Amino acid sequence: MMRPLMFAVCLAPGLAFAAGGGSSSPPTPTETTTTCSNGQVWDAGKGACVNPQSGALDADTLYEAVRELAYAGQYQNAQKVLAAMPDQTDDRVLTYWGFTERKLGDVPSGMAYYAKALDANPNNSLARSYMGQALVEHGDLAAARVQLEAIRASGDTGTWPEEALARALSTGSTYSY
């Protein structure tokens, strides 16, 4: 059942071309992951942890908190922040919904989010890389190569998304970030 779903997701309209999107370096740990708990985010202006729904933080600050929490393996906390993001159709938000869902064990949901991210922005190479890594994890190397070739065709050769997916294909090991 998993392979047909992933195959269908990979062939969905709007997924044929890739590129760009996502930072290539891991986020630097901040108080969000070292001090705050239960999905709260550090507000440097207040010098305190705040609930992401409070409206005190802008979307870019929340996005960086999501990246930091996801990188730290705090997927449920990352989802609490994702839920507070003002634009749930933003391809960056959809990419991290996909990533956290997949890492929490719901691969079909994660793949659906990656597909939505790519529908919103076909140039999101981070979504393609994460999708490709999920395909590698499930043994669908041909479909993962499609994602890698789309990343390369977009000009994103040498970026973290391209290198991570290429490495996953050659070694069978995937990355959390």
A few lines on this structure:
The chain is mainly alpha-helical. It is 58% helix and 3% strand. Strands 1-2 form a two-stranded antiparallel ribbon.
Folded structure, characterized:
Strands 1-2 form a two-stranded antiparallel ribbon. It folds into 2 domains: 1-21 and 107-177, no CATH class; 24-86, no CATH class. The chain is mainly α and 177 residues long. The chain has 9 helices and 2 strands; from the N terminus they run ααββααααααα. It starts with a helix and ends in a 6-residue tail after the last helix. It has helices at 2-11, 31-34, 59-71, 75-84, 91-103, 107-120, 125-137, 141-153, 160-171, and strands at residues 41-43, 48-50. A hairpin with a 4-residue loop joins strand 1 (41-43) and strand 2. Residues 1-22 have low confidence and may be disordered.
Whole-number total of structural domains: 2
Largest sheet: 2 strands, antiparallel
Enumerate how many helices there are, as a single number: 9
Rg over C-alpha atoms, rounded to the nearest angstrom: 16 Å
Low-confidence stretches: 1-22
- SSE run: HHEEHHHHHHH
Number of strands: 2
